[in-house]
Design brief:
Structural class: alpha/beta
Cofactor: [4Fe-4S] cluster
Distance between the termini: 18 Å
GO molecular function, one term: iron-responsive element binding
EC number: 4.2.1.3
Strand order of the largest sheet: 26-29-30-31-34-33-32
Catalytic activity: citrate = D-threo-isocitrate
Radius of gyration: 27 Å
Oligomer: single chain
Strand content: 15-25%
Enzyme class: lyase
């Protein structure tokens, strides 16, 4: 591979220097090409990487020209991107490290040098997704959560420690430091990289769906599958079709009572309605300057919810002010500013003459934002807080759908008494039983967390409490959050209301919440109640928090606290009190909501540089006669496909663990056993919410067509494989939406699935299927399984031509024939598929 400053490099003439020639960089001014100044800044980052890594093999001069010609080549040309680093969390980090260790063995067996198998791209692995809540109030245990985690995950943690020593270019961040996206923001993000005398923009691909949060700091990054990340680690660039870039122009002023989360949800709604799937979003306009760096990262984090690839905030004066609070030295800040201005990656949003040209522009008025929550089943279904009570009532009335629960009128007033910790309580429709401030979205934003803390302080001082049966928890994104909550003096008040710090990492959001008290579960079942969970994350698919909690709402941290105190979502905060003081006085939300000035002053006093410094010391085509393993409908998410949360005691995975003489208490979660293919394969399609048309009701079951037996999905797949029968999956629209997880492709592949035929796919999941060697096949427009009169019980054969090309139509036969489109977007996709998937291609290249 060419060295950037070598005489052979085709773009050596563009080299410039900073700091008296000590640091070299690519200077776009030397291009003397007027197209550069018109490029969106996110495309300029891709261009810089292409020029710097232009080696004539992975990255060619043609790729550089295509990037410069972005206006004409968008959505047409395929370009490579070599990010500055790779980010892994432990769910995907374990299989990545296991795969690399296995590749070392394979290379050694073939006479090669196993030391070749090391990440070429710097890789950070953050141990954060292991968190499982064991401890809660009224729990009889002598061990706190952190102690339980060390006991449960000892073997995994030992493996991570070994990896940090065995592999070069791997940095392992130990547990109890922070969640992956939070550590990325606070510690790993550099905005600029300085290596071997070269300076260039920081950029990243990560295996966590929240990787996009980093775009709020002007660092280009997005989530990829575990298989793609491993390829990047080994030196392969990410291949992408040159994206369209939507300019999001922010105007107007933010209402003082509106939190950043309200702004996030408002922008999310606008962008979701704009239909920007698979596109880059880049923010500009005078309104951007009103958003703090934490506000921007919170907005950037939500881009998977409106299906954008990234939501990019270019570096400006606000970004520089943010890094002055961190452990950046003055010298590094000056170097960053000088470099970003020299390469025109620095913005003044008040100057419209700097605005680049975009594929299209969407204008959003910030003054239109009002407080919202989202739910009860999907993040895109927003509800104004003022109309929450009325909306929940309509959800009870509506037929079962994305919002409705269809509760009969005569049963809507049902109240079920129960005993908890020796005291009697009542549950009704709308009762809150889970209230969680978690690490997914909001804890990167000091203002909303401090708002929650100040609200808790005022509530406790007013004599308000949270009912003890409500599962409350606080899982900060990092120790910094705990630090500023403690420094500001609000943490004890959160604890008094039950929001105790249970650890650092993903917990409630991925189904790792502590079980509800049995009395609560029994009361919910007895009254067939629509119980509610309220959380400050960005994911809340039905049944994800707990299978008996049907309604789940996303809310800002202070609203999570408010609804926990109220004990119900069926409340009008303007007209109804949260509760009563000890002397019987009514207390309304407005009485304890902190002012914007109070919040800003507290943030200024506590979120300071010392806090940061303290915390930082061979694939086969389906042969003739493939059977359908599953016949699925629309909106099958990665939650339905990939194992998540605790391991049910009646599941196929549980049966396997019992056979290994483990007790149910030792089962742990699917996330904790992500490196065990036997467990993870058995957990694939093990969701209790899986709707399989073969069965007609939800559950992890399917029909073994030859025998007519109803079996666990794994057991059916295992029987098909033993009989040598290949498998396909039939599905509807939006197959594979949701979080990125490597096992959404690995699991089906190990079950014997070789093709998925669906009406449409979520883009990232489609790429994961290609990476594992599973064909993503799409019905032609206007066609689906029903229009083709497929029962799913036919035997299918997909005929592959000798020469396969992107987006080629293939013939599928099952008695009668129909056409499907092979969703290979690029020639690279085809190459990976023909080699049996991306990892097998990389391994063969090494050999």
């Amino acid at each position: 591979m060419f060295v950037f400053v070598s005489a052979e490099h085709p773009y050596r003439h563009l080299i410039d220097s900073l700091e008296d020639g000590r640091i070299k960089f690519f200077n776009p001014q030397k291009l003397k090409d007027p197209r550069y100044d018109k490029l969106p800044l996110s495309i300029r980052v891709l261009l810089e990487a292409a020029i710097r890594n232009c080696d004539g093999f992975y990255t060619k001069e043609e790729d550089v020209q295509n990037l410069l010609d972005w206006q004409q080549q968008q959505n047409k040309a395929e370009v490579p991107f070599s990010p500055a680093r790779v980010l892994l969390q432990d769910f995907t980090g374990i299989p990545a490290m296991v795969d690399l260790a296995a590749m070392r063995d394979a290379v050694a067996k073939h006479g090669g040098d196993p030391s070749l198998v090391n990440p070429k791209c710097p890789t950070d692995l953050i141990v954060d997704h292991s968190l499982q809540i064991d401890y809660s109030k009224c729990t009889d245990t002598s061990l706190k959560n952190q102690e339980m985690e060390l006991i449960r995950n000892k073997e995994r943690l030992q493996f991570f420690k070994w990896c940090s020593k065995a592999f070069k270019n791997v940095n392992v961040v130990p547990p109890d430091v922070g969640a992956v996206h939070q550590v990325n923001l606070e510690y790993l993000s550099k905005v600029i990289q300085v290596r071997d005398g070269l300076i260039y923009p920081d950029s990243v691909v990560g295996t966590d769906s929240h990787t996009t949060m980093i775009n709020g700091l002007g660092v280009l990054g997005w989530g990829v599958g575990g298989i793609e990340s491993e390829a990047v680690m080994l030196g392969q660039p990410v291949s992408l079709t040159l994206p369209q870039v939507v300019g999001c122009k922010l105007v107007g002023s933010i209402n003082p009572l509106t939190t950043s989360i309200d702004v996030v949800l408002g922008i999310t709604k606008h962008l979701r309605q704009a239909g920007i799937a698979g596109k880059f979003v880049e923010f500009f306009g005078p309104g951007v300057s009103q958003l703090s760096a934490p506000d921007r990262t919170t907005i950037a984090n939500m881009c998977p919810e409106y299906s954008a690839t990234v939501s990019f905030f270019p570096v400006d004066q606000v970004t520089l002010q943010h890094f002055k609070k961190t452990n950046f030295t003055q010298e590094k800040l000056e170097l960053m500013e000088d470099y970003m201005k020299a390469v025109k990656l620095f913005r003044s949003f008040e100057d419209p003459s700097e605005d680049p040209q975009y594929s299209e522009v969407i204008e959003i008025n910030l003054s239109s934002m009002v407080p919202y929550v989202s739910g009860p089943k999907r993040p895109q279904d927003r509800v104004t807080v003022s109309s929450m009570k009325q909306d929940f009532q309509s959800c009870l009335d509506e037929k079962v759908c994305f919002k409705g629960f269809h509760i009969a009128k005569e049963k809507q007033e049902t109240r079920v008494p129960f005993l908890h910790c020796g005291q009697e309580y009542q549950l009704a429709h709308g009762s809150v039983v889970i209230a969680a401030v978690i690490s997914c979205t909001n804890n990167c934003n000091p203002s909303v967390m401090l708002t929650a803390g100040l609200l808790a302080k005022k509530a406790v001082e007013a004599g308000l409490v949270v009912k003890p049966y409500i599962r409350t928890s606080l899982a900060p994104g990092s120790g910094m959050v705990t630090h500023y909550l403690s420094t500001s003096g609000v943490l004890p008040y959160l604890s008094q209301l039950g929001f105790e710090v249970i650890g650092y990492g993903c917990a409630t959001c991925v189904g790792n919440t502590a079980p509800l008290p049995e009395a609560v579960v029994d009361a919910i079942k007895q009254g067939d109640l629509v119980a509610c969970g309220v959380l400050s994350g960005n994911r809340h698919f039905e049944g994800r928090l707990c299978d008996c909690v049907r309604a789940n709402y996303l809310a800002s941290p202070p609203l999570v606290v408010a609804y926990a105190i109220a004990g119900t979502v069926g409340i009008d905060f303007e007209k109804e009190p949260l509760g009563l003081t000890s002397d019987g006085k009514e207390v309304y939300l407005r009485d304890i909501w902190p002012s914007r000035e109070e919040i800003q002053q507290t943030e200024e006093d506590t979120v300071i540089s010392s806090i940061f410094k303290d915390l930082r010391e061979s694939v086969r085509e389906p042969r003739e006669g493939a059977h359908a393993l599953l016949f699925l409908g629309d909106k099958v998410t990665t939650d339905h496909i990939s194992p998540a949360g605790s391991i049910a005691r009646v599941s196929a995975a549980a049966k396997y663990l019992l056979s290994k003489r483990l007790t149910p208490r030792e089962f742990n979660s699917y996330g904790a056993r992500r490196g065990n293919d036997a467990v993870m394969t058995r957990g694939t399609f093990a969701s209790i919410k899986l709707q399989n048309r073969f069965i007609g009701k939800s559950g992890p079951k399917t029909l073994h067509i030859p025998s007519g037996q109803t079996l666990d999905v794994f057991e059916a797949a295992d029987r098909y494989q033993r009989d040598g029968v290949p498998l396909i999956i039939l599905a509807g629209k939006d197959y594979g939406s949701g979080n990125s997880r490597d096992w959404v492709a690995k699991g089906p592949y190990l079950m014997g699935v070789r093709a998925v035929i669906a009406e449409s796919f979520e883009t990232l999941h489609k790429n994961q299927l290609v990476g594992m060697g599973i064909m993503p096949l799409q019905f032609l427009p206007g066609q689906n399984a029903d229009s083709l009169e497929l029962s799913g019980k036919e035997r299918f054969t997909v005929t592959l031509p000798e020469s396969l090309s992107p987006r080629q139509q293939l013939t599928t036969s099952q008695g009668k024939s129909f056409l499907v489109t092979a969703l290979f977007d690029t020639e690279t996709d085809v190459i990976f598929f023909q080699h049996g998937g991306l990892l097998r291609y990389v391994a063969r290249t090494l050999l």
